[in-house]
Design goal:
The protein is an all-alpha fold. It contains 5 helices and no strands.
């Protein structure tokens, strides 16, 4: 019995893509001054992505080839992928509103809305979602703005002259 299923094929394709990206990272130009190489972070991310893809491949090889989800049409597919679709829609809204709201307000709203969609809308959970959103985005914004000196999108609300 063959162990090749759809997930194995996807994992192999993802491994090939990681290999191509890693190879392309050697074409990133090195600056003349002494600093961390620009290709370092892409390679670190690709290493983790490759590791996760290898885990995906190993798990895919353990699943018998004949196993597949039940068919139920478009509504079943929509119900099955409801959470990822919500995440993509919310991220799209975040990107569209980024020039207006900026990274700080838009990021807090994106994290809060995503947590609310995925975690529920009960009263205590909403407070927890709000706290997590404000603290997580606030800390990341502070690190990038002050510690790393990165200029983040301010939006129209916090634009400084």
């Amino acid at each position: 019995m063959s162990r090749i299923n759809r997930d194995v094929i996807v994992a192999v394709i993802l491994l090939l893509i990681c290999g191509v990206f890693f190879t392309v990272s050697f074409g990133i130009r090195e600056p003349d001054y002494g600093t961390l190489a620009p290709a370092t972070w892409p390679r670190v991310i690709l290493a983790y992505l490759t590791l996760l893809t290898l885990i995906y491949l190993a798990q895919s090889l353990r699943i018998p080839a004949g196993e597949s989800k039940s068919k139920g049409g478009f509504r079943a597919w929509l119900a099955s992928y409801r959470n990822p679709l919500w995440c993509y829609a919310l991220f799209l809204a975040f990107l569209i509103t980024l020039p207006v709201l900026g990274i700080l307000i838009g990021g807090v709203l994106f994290v809060f809305c995503t947590l609310t969609v995925l975690g529920g809308m009960e009263g205590r959970k909403l407070l927890l979602h709000a706290a997590v959103a404000v603290i997580a985005v606030g800390v990341m914004w502070t690190i990038f703005t002050y510690a790393l000196g990165v200029i983040l999108p301010q939006g129209m609300i916090f634009t400084t002259l």
